[in-house]
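TA notes, week 10

Several of you asked for a full example with nothing omitted. So below is the full record: structure tokens for the whole chain, then the designed sequence directly under it. When grading your own attempts, check the secondary structure regions first.
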């Protein structure tokens, strides 16, 4: 990719050298320098290259402001990040200087790993770095959404209010994540428990029946022979099929991280009628909440869309936001591209269109996010209520088939004795 300085001719006028840091489409951090007349011109060029801006600073030396991301530090848990922003907001609103607030938060850190991470942030802030810059250096702990909120707060002098908003955003995002996990955890537990029960029957129970039938010289029907052969295979051949299964699992895990696998998973999830409603509900809830927070903080809509795109690992969603960003750059409203997507319910696109026309887009997005979260909760409960009896019936059928196959020889012996 050509550098930003070569891609666009420089404007005529007083030129300065700016050091910039940004994220590419894959979320990686890159940095460099650019000669331009203003920070706005640098930002425009970087956005044209598809990069999300982390920081832009005028550099007298002409060298990039490259501070490596602190990727070696332990990742801060979401609950700890929520507590961090809430505590910081309360102290800033009370008039406590940020250095003293950070010192108090470091002392209250729940463990050594968090204390070390927060202490490094404190040192950087006390050394003159902006809080947003210190947070941006730790992408594993602080998302681009949060970093953008703090950067907007620093520019407008509303750090106390924006840290509170960052905590609220993370809290509501955690709620959506928990709702989706609830929809997946119970079916997964039922399937796992059912599989263990079936495995126990095959490995421990069936061999006892086999010994009884062998001592009686009973004639075994086909289903019973097949079941006993399966049980014998599981008990005696584990030394080669378990490593094989482990290898398949590792290969599958590596494959699932590729873009092609993610596209197939997207297509599968969005193609299942019941699952699709949960996925779409969670998706809409998250991006409307994120856009509402960013737009309400004064972040440019193009940058807000870029942040939303960078925060998702789904290829289908990334393609959606690529189209939306290009549409906005072409001068079309946000709702125009959303109306053409199958990932956005028509009612959501209509409400966003009304919000743009009335100039109340952030408020409308908040309303949509709240409604989407309520609908998602209802959908999760309904989905769970449908999956639960289906899993119970399936497990009962499998256990019933196993029991019937093992009792068939008993029926045969009974007929032989009566005859």
């Amino acid at each position: 990719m050509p550098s930003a300085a070569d891609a666009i001719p420089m404007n005529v006028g007083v030129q300065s050298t700016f050091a910039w840091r940004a994220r590419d489409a894959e979320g990686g951090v890159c940095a460099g320098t650019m000669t331009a007349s203003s920070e706005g011109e640098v930002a425009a060029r970087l956005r044209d290259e598809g990069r999300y801006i982390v920081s832009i600073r005028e550099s007298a030396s002409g060298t990039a402001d490259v501070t490596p991301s602190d990727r070696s530090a332990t990742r801060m848990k979401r609950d700890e990040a929520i507590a961090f922003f809430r505590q910081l907001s309360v102290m800033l609103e009370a008039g406590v200087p940020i250095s003293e607030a950070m010192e108090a938060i470091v002392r209250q850190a729940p463990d050594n790993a968090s204390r070390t991470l927060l202490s490094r942030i404190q040192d950087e802030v006390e050394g003159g770095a902006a809080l947003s810059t210190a947070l941006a250096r730790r992408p594993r702990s602080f998302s681009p959404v949060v970093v953008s909120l703090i950067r907007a707060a620093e520019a407008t002098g509303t750090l106390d209010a924006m840290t509170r908003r960052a905590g609220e955003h993370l809290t509501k995002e955690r709620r959506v994540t928990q709702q989706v996990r609830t929809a997946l955890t119970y079916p997964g537990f039922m399937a796992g428990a059912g599989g263990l029960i079936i495995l126990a029957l095959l490995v421990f129970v069936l061999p006892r029946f086999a010994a009884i039938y062998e001592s009686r010289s009973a004639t075994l029907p086909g289903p019973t022979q097949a079941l006993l052969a399966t049980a014998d295979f599981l008990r005696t051949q584990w030394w080669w099929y378990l490593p094989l299964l482990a290898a398949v699992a590792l290969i599958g895990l590596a494959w699932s991280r590729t873009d092609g696998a993610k596209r197939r998973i997207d297509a599968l999830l969005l193609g299942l009628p019941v699952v699709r409603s949960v996925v779409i509900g969670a998706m809409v809830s998250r991006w409307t909440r994120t856009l509402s927070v960013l737009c309400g903080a004064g972040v440019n809509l193009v940058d807000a869309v870029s942040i939303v795109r960078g925060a998702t690992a789904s290829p289908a969603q990334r393609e959606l936001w690529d189209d939306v960003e290009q549409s906005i750059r072409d001068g079309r409203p946000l709702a125009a591209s959303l109306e053409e997507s199958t990932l956005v319910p028509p009612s959501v696109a209509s409400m966003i269109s009304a919000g743009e026309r009335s100039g109340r887009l952030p408020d409308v997005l908040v309303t949509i996010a709240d409604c989407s979260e309520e609908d998602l909760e209802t959908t999760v409960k309904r989905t769970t209520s449908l999956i639960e009896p289906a899993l119970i019936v399936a497990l009962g059928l499998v256990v019933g088939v196993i029991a019937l196959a093992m009792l068939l020889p008993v029926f045969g012996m009974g007929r032989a004795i009566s005859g």
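The chain has a mean pLDDT of 79. Use that as a sanity check on your answer.
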